[in-house]
Structures are given as C-alpha cells and as structure tokens.
Write a structure and sequence with these properties.
single chain; 331 residues; alpha/beta; Rossmann fold; globular
Length: 331
Amino acid sequence: MAVKATTRKITKPSVSLNGNATPKKAAVVTEKFITTPITNNIALPAEDIAQFISTTELQNLRSKKDLSDLLTKNGSDSKKLLDAIKYEDELEKLQIELVKLQRWVQEKGKRIAILFEGRDAAGKGGTIRRFTEHLNPRAMRVVALPKPTDEELGQWYFQRYTRQLPNKGEIVFFDRSWYNRAVVEPVNGFCTENQYNIFMQQVPELEHMLYEDGVIIIKFWFSIAKEEQLRRFNSRKSNPLKQWKLSPVDMQAQDKWDTYTKYKEVMFSKTHTSFSPWIVVKANNKQKARLESIRYVLSIIPYSGKDESTVSLHPNPNIITRFHRNASSID
C-alpha cells in the first residue's frame, strides 16, 4: 500500500546520561504523518481523515480489518473510508474496460451516442466525467449545448443536435439532448404546444432512422427523490465551487415537480421503443449510479477483450432498470 505523507516538526527534550530530561537543549526531529491514504494509486478525499495516521501505523497494516480498526481507534468513519476505497477500486476497473470499449469502437468504426437525461441535480454531469476521465479525447466528445441562438430557433428543431451525432469511430456523450423539448421546454414555457406535439411525433422516427443506419443510442434517465434534489440544491448554494451549477430553471424545479413528472411520464410512454429504450438509473446514491450506468454500457456492447474483465459487467437490477409501461411511477 503506497502512502502520501506530510511532515511536521516535533520538539523533543534531550535526555542526559542519568535519564533526566534537560529542557534547555531540545532536539528537533521530523516525523511523517499520513494525510491521505492511497490504495492502488487512488487518493481519497482528505476530509475523510478525522485525524493523522502515522507512517509506521500504516506500514503495519496487513488487511482491511487492520485499516478499519486503526481508523476506528483514531476516531475516523472506517466504513465510509472502506466504502470509498472499494468504490474507487471498482471505478478504476470499469474505466479500464471503457478504454477497451473505445479502442473497439475506433477499430470497428462504430458510432455510439449516450444520452443523459433526468431532473436537475440528478448527477448527470458527474457520471459523464467518470465515463470520460481516461478516454482518448480525440475519439469522444461531450455535448452540452447552450440555449438555441436566434438562427437555430428558425431551424428544424433536431438540426443543431444532428450536427453533433458521432462520426465513425467516435462516442458522443449528450449532457441533456433533444429531449429538452419533451420535458424542460414545455414545463418552463420555452416551446409552443404545437412545437411539442411535432417533436413527440418525430422523435421515434428520427431514432429509428439512426438505428437503421447503425448508430448505437443509449438513453439514460437519472431518477432522484424530491427530498434528495432539494438537499443537492442547498449543497450547491452553500458551496462557492458549485454555485455556477444553479440556474433560474433549477430554482423552480421543486415548485414544478409534479409538472415535470407529468411530462416525463408522457415522454416515456411515447418514446420508449424496442430499438431505443429508456434505461432508468436510481441516482439518490451518486456513486452507485455512476458505477452501474458504466456497467450497463459495457454489458450491452460486444467489445474486444470483454471476456478478460476483472470486474463484474452485470448491472445491479436494483439500480438499473429498463422502463416498463406497467411499472410504478418513477421519481
């Protein structure tokens, strides 16, 4: 187990030959302390360490139980840290598989479009970052379009999105997609009823054409509870590094929760097809949502080297489910 250590100076009284301390002459020594444990080159957040752990203590560890006992002794939340170590270890193994998948996409000239939809603060952006963290940027793109320009408002609605579809040998991640018109736009009055109806009629036809042309489309809906959304909004408000994520639309999401639900259910009903199904991700737990969405993508694509995987590629059915028309209400 590798460690990342910091040092601090400690003043120790020197000891005379008769064993009595002589405070007048103090020796300055340097002792190493662990501020961030690292397992398999994976750094854990420093705030997860309640107190310093000495290098000697860490070097004496022989098992996860030893680490748990040490953290408990020092007043740290051992379960939280061990869960974080397990999460990072599993994420790294899944990301290795994603690299293999991307290489297969390049070699075979495949085209993959992955759509991330869901309520505000559902964890879409964070999941995309885990997908793309170690991928070759020359063979993948993240698309997060701003609001349409005046010119784009005069175009066919899908035009600015079709421009972003994957090229040969490329994976494209859509952080929100053409499905803005299915939920966000009608809820907030950004489109007319006629524009909405035309979209709902055309989108299955468009996706069927893409399917017939060989484009692999994966549609995720990240589902969170109303209480969890509010908690994340409050976290963003209090964190200066996350305040940019809040928008006027976000601020109305709680008040318009039921209206979002109504349009979301219509969207599922009219756009869930055999060739382009909706995959629902239970996202109250961000880490589980990230792992299982990656695992789902890996599970459905026959990339080279898949049989040599050192991690399970079977998504957890308690986290990942295919939308079913008779299922109970989502969110």
